[in-house]
Amino acid sequence: MKQKLVVIGNGMAGMRTVDELLQCAPEKYHITVFGAEPHGNYNRIMLTPVLFGAKSVSDIMIHDFDWYRRNRITLHCGAAKAVVAVDRAKRLVIARDGTTAEYDRLLIATGSLPLMLDIPGRDLAGVMGFRDIADVETMIETAKTKQHAVILGGGLLGLEAANGLSHRGMEVTVVNRAGHLLNRQLDQQAASFLQRQLENKGISFRLGATIAEIIGRDQHIQKVRLSDNSLLPADMLVMATGIQPNIALAQTMGLTCERGIVVNDVLQTSDPHIYAVGECVQHRGEVFGLVAPVYEQAKVCARHLAGESNVAYQALLAATMLKVTGIDLFSVGDFDGDAECQQQVLIDHALGIYRKIVLKNDVIVGMILYGDTSDSAWYLNLIKNRTNIAAFRDSLIFNQPALAA
């Protein structure tokens, strides 16, 4: 007899787990999925091209409604179907509108929430995050009739929002607390290349500053006051200051939570009948915001749900690729290094190319590529495999040598 698997969260992590499970144990479970958005499962990473205008919402669907029907998966989706409680004693999931589902195994994949900073005026209309289809649709509609957009945060998401809104004709200013862009992924030199390229696209920057106050009229944002007391006009403010694991439901259920829902090496929570994957989890002290480790979690979790015992999740080395159209950027590992490290640096201002490789004992420990990332996969393999590069050290920074191809 089939067991009942209920999935809370219809996003990339939960549905990748279901995908993997359908591959390795297609007949083991009756599957029911609850999702708070009124869509099938879509590729959240591709929201940027939708904002930019290069793709439509239908283009980024991973699983449309027909896929759930074909695979005999019960899907409850939309705000009324958001799960508000779980009775662990009865193994019962309860949605906002009273819909219930019993489970033998439960998978929590509630993802993350945008970090909305507690700035005076943040409840005004026009202040938003950049997290889902609804956000993107609001941004596209606003860009049709409004002029000024302010982005708070010079990280990956903030720059993607800035580029998309600029492409749609808005005057965009990025406000960033750090002194340079992508300060977690780039050094000062690479960031200056990036800033110059974005300024050439018409985007303005206020670095080393933050927003002290959001000022409105008739309940709608009108301008922002920066920490240096200057004012910027703003018809829209997008907060792109990071994400936080969405653990509220897990906390009310009494599961062990720290920064995220604490899981073991097979993605089980403190309740062995309940699993969790994705940006809501914390594994060995680490939380996650990139797709590669989340998909690896999904694979391990699915195999354990299928009955395999000899599986274990290990965190992967994550690399950063920027999805801003027309900009090639790759960053991985420790690109600053310590006193025992050596650096190889190549700068070509004419071509807009910057390369920096950090070495320790003839092994690459981190690097940045800007302007030309064609060899990024080769470099990433060298780092993951801890390859000794002594034999081609002199040519390492230029490109992939024939002997290593």
UniProtKB/TrEMBL annotation:
Keywords carried by this UniProt record: FAD, Flavoprotein
Keyword presence, Flavoprotein: yes
Annotated NADH-rubredoxin oxidoreductase C-terminal domain residues: 319-386
Chain ranges of the FAD/NAD(P)-binding domain: 4-292
SUPFAM superfamilies the record matches: FAD/NAD(P)-binding domain
InterPro entries noted in UniProt: FAD-bd_OxRdtase, FAD/NAD-bd_sf, FAD/NAD-binding_dom, FAD/NAD-linked_Rdtase_dimer_sf, Rubredoxin_C
Pfam families: Pyr_redox_2, Rubredoxin_C
Keyword Flavoprotein: yes
Cofactor(s) this protein cannot do without: FAD
Domain of life per record: Bacteria
Protein family: Belongs to the FAD-dependent oxidoreductase family.
Name of the protein in question: FAD-dependent oxidoreductase
